[in-house]
Amino acid sequence: MKKLFERLELDDYEQVVFNYDEASGLKAIIAIHDTTLGPALGGTRVWDYDSEEEALNDVLRLSKGMTYKSAAAGLNLGGGKAVIIGDPEEIKSEELWRAYGRFIQSLNGRYITAEDVNTTVDDMEIVAEETGFVTGLPSTSGDPSPVTALGTFHGIRAAAEEVYGSDDLSGKVVAVQGVGHVGQNLVRHLKKAGADVVITDIKQENIDAVVEEFGVKVVEPGKIYSVNCDIFAPCALGAVINDDTIPQLKCDIVAGAANNVLEEKRHGDMLEEKGIAYAPDYVINAGGVINVYDELIGYNRERALRRTKNIFDNIKKVFKISNRDNIPTYEAADIMAEERIENIGNVRRNYIPR
What we know:
Layout: H1 2-10, E1 15-21, E2 26-34, E3 40-41, E4 44-47, H2 52-72, E5 78-85, H3 88-91, H4 94-106, E6 111-112, H5 121-127, H6 145-164, E7 173-177, H7 181-192, E8 196-200, H8 204-214, E9 217-218, E10 231-234, E11 253-254, H9 266-273, E12 277-278, H10 281-284, H11 287-296, H12 301-309, H13 311-325, H14 329-348
Parallel strand pairs: 3-5, 3-6, 4-5, 7-8, 7-10, 8-9, 10-11, 11-12
Antiparallel strand pairs: 1-2, 2-5
Helix pairs in contact: 2-14, 4-5, 6-7, 6-11, 6-12, 6-13, 7-8, 11-12, 13-14
């Protein structure tokens, strides 16, 4: 127990809740990192983790990332995340989602959920039968994946402008790792912009759908890192930039929609040393959370898309701080997010809580 509290103290987490329901088989962990700017919002992912410790580490990392993502995007939200342990092909059921919704309701608005890896807007609709603290529903903002992809596309343009002096992607080779809902929509934007795209995915049905629509080149999952390309766009799970993959990279830019792309912070330093520009993940992939946030204030699609396009400016600001302070971009992004949390936190101390 002492080690767990030491882990929470290290990155200043507010709350971790373990949820178990025998009837439905639900085993969930909800982590709330920081609520200075507002309620903690973050998706729920279902994953067949090898251990409970792995699940806990994942939800802690992801919840902190959501704090920084919302802060950097200029949203009045804190950071949270949830993981449900188990094989998504086997455990998902109405009773599981309703039990999960009741646990969320018990937090009384401190945590707001949405879809994530291996969950859908239809799943969230069942959760909504037990709690109002859920967003990204079919009847309102819907699937946030297309908006995540749009923001990532504009972030890639900003990174290209920083490296090449132009945001024109025509003729640029982009290697996209993972072509699920977000990756497929990103490929659509890239192809429309004239880029040459190489893809990979662990699911053959995802590859088939993208090849049929766009006729892109396909490589095996392990070979995507060594593709000769201008831009590597990780759009699957995290920690793909690590000791093993960095030596393989043959790109100028790493910019994609996946969360927690760097396995460790030092891998951001390694990219810097190798001369590879890195667009920090939680800044570039904020389109989804921008979209669901707009639902919380009365959904307006045009406003959500307009805010998402501002990711271009946010990525440019990260590079500006990086160049000004002579620090890696992942540090620059943290500075941008932490300054907003501190500044708004100071302002809010002047007012009586509702």
